[in-house]
């Protein structure tokens, strides 16, 4: 009776270890940096060190084959972690039972290069493989290799850049954002518009009075005088109406100028000249 709990515990422990270690479908894992090839153990029991001599030009390639007889890995991703401060996630390209992670060093974040080269002891960039096998609920994460970049070249490249842009001080006070809002469009003063309108109305009334006082004289000259006079007065009224529409905001300045100078001014001047010629 006392051995039964121990037997159950031992059985569950063996199953857990078997699930975690056996049935791995990853075989022949290798890391390539240029012409250098580093072979890794399938169980990743040993952490290899990968050196990159030329960070700008070289690309780290992590490859492995998939054993079709074992449970297949799902959602495989490679995580690069530097000093537990900067992490990047990379997905694999899988085809014909082979998965490849391509890691161009020039695309590494500048913050990662900064922490890698400035921390004491040249902190390595850890490569962690995470995946989920079929039939398992939890993800498996394994530390497979460390990346060491050429410290001098990385520092030389960082010195050429602005440190505040690489690693901004998130605690410091950020510069104020100054924005100048656009002023509202200027409009003519209402008093000036009223005076201008009254002047136009007075001139129009005066023109009508002069026309009425001289209509008897002009009627004897030609029957066309009344036509020119009515056309001239209509043009003045149309001009006043156009300005009035502009003051109300119905038309913009360009539409008003088009109506006044193109459609109304020229015909009104011509009709006014013909009318004055016949009256006087």
Automatic annotation (TrEMBL):
Per the record, GO CC terms? Answer: oligosaccharyltransferase complex
Q: Which residues cross the membrane?
A: 192-213, 225-247, 253-273
Q: What membrane topology is annotated for this entry? A: Multi-pass membrane protein
Record's keyword annotation contains Transmembrane = yes
Which domain of life does the UniProt lineage start with? Answer: Eukaryota
Where does the signal peptide begin and end? 1-19
Instruction: Supply the InterPro entries for this chain.
Output: Ribophorin_II_C (IPR056790), Swp1 (IPR008814)
Which stretches are annotated as coiled coil? Answer: none
UniProt keyword annotations, A-Z: Endoplasmic reticulum, Membrane, Signal, Transmembrane, Transmembrane helix
Domain Ribophorin II C-terminal stretches: 181-279
Q: Where in the cell is it found?
A: Endoplasmic reticulum membrane
Q: Which Pfam families match?
A: Ribophorin_II_C (PF25147)
Main localization (coarse): endoplasmic reticulum
Its GO biological process annotations read:
protein N-linked glycosylation
**Is DNA repair a UniProt keyword of this protein?**
no
Q: What is this protein called?
A: Ribophorin II C-terminal domain-containing protein
- Kindly list the organism's lineage: Eukaryota, Fungi, Dikarya, Ascomycota, Saccharomycotina
């Amino acid at each position: 009776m006392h051995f039964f709990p121990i037997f159950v515990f031992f059985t569950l422990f063996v199953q857990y270890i078997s699930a975690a270690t056996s049935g791995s479908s990853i075989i022949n894992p290798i890391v390539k940096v240029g012409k250098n090839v580093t072979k890794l153990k399938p169980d990743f029991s040993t952490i290899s060190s990968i050196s990159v001599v030329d960070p700008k030009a070289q690309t780290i390639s992590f490859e492995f084959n998939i054993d079709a007889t074992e449970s297949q890995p799902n959602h495989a991703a490679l995580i690069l972690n530097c000093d537990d401060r900067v992490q990047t996630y990379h997905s694999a390209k899988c085809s014909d039972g082979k998965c490849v992670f391509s890691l161009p060093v020039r695309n590494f974040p500048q913050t990662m290069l900064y922490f890698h080269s400035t921390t004491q002891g040249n902190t390595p960039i850890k490569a962690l493989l995470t995946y989920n096998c079929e039939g398992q609920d939890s993800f498996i994460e394994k530390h497979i290799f460390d990346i060491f970049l050429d410290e001098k070249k990385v520092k030389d490249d960082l010195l050429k850049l602005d440190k505040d842009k690489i690693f901004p001080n998130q605690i410091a006070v950020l510069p104020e954002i100054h924005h100048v809002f656009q002023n509202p469009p200027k409009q003519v003063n209402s008093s000036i518009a009223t005076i201008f309108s009254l002047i136009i109305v007075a001139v129009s009334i005066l023109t009508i009075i002069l026309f009425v006082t001289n209509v008897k004289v002009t009627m004897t000259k030609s029957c066309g005088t009344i036509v020119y006079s009515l056309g001239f007065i209509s043009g003045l009224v149309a001009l006043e109406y156009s300005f009035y529409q502009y003051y109300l905001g119905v038309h913009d300045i360009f539409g008003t100028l088009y109506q006044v100078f193109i459609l109304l001014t020229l015909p009104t001047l011509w009709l006014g000249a013909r009318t004055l010629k016949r009256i006087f």
